[in-house]
Amino acid sequence: MSQKRRLTLAQMEAGQTGTVVEVLDGPGFGQRRGPGFMRRRGPGLMQSHGPGFGRRLEALGIRPGKKVTKISSMFFRGPVTLRVDNAQVAVGFRMASRIIVEVDASA
To answer: How much is the mean pLDDT over the chain?
Structure first.
């Protein structure tokens, strides 16, 4: 019997396939300020996504309902490479950490 479980793209293992169910975004993610475009929001919380976050994902074909396959990721929070439709794309680690995917956890 197979079960579905939710992970972020960053948490998926290479070779896993799943369906995008949600893209996390919130207030303050369209604001760029300070060195490195980082802004402190509360104790220890940093936000850095620019105003084009959702548009970039849409242009790459990453949206709810799409099947994606993780191809690889780099050490130390490097880019995550994945296959969407017939294209191979790479997204940053922080961006991959905000994309929720439902994967098949069959044993």
So the answer is: 77
Q: How many CB atoms lie within 10 A of CB 40?
A: 11
Identify the H or E element spanning 53. helix 53-60
Taking the domains of the chain in order of start, what are their residue ranges?
A: 4-104
Q: What is the pLDDT of residue 31?
A: 46
Q: What length does the chain have?
A: 107
Q: Give the global pTM.
A: 0.70
Give Cα 84 to chain centroid, integer Å. 13
- What per-residue confidence (pLDDT) applies to 29? 45
CATH number of the structural domain 4-104: 2.30.30.90
- pLDDT tens, residue by residue, 1-10: 567 899 999 9
DSSP-derived secondary structure for 33-72: -SGGG-EE-STT-EE---TTHHHHHHHHT--TT-EEEEEE
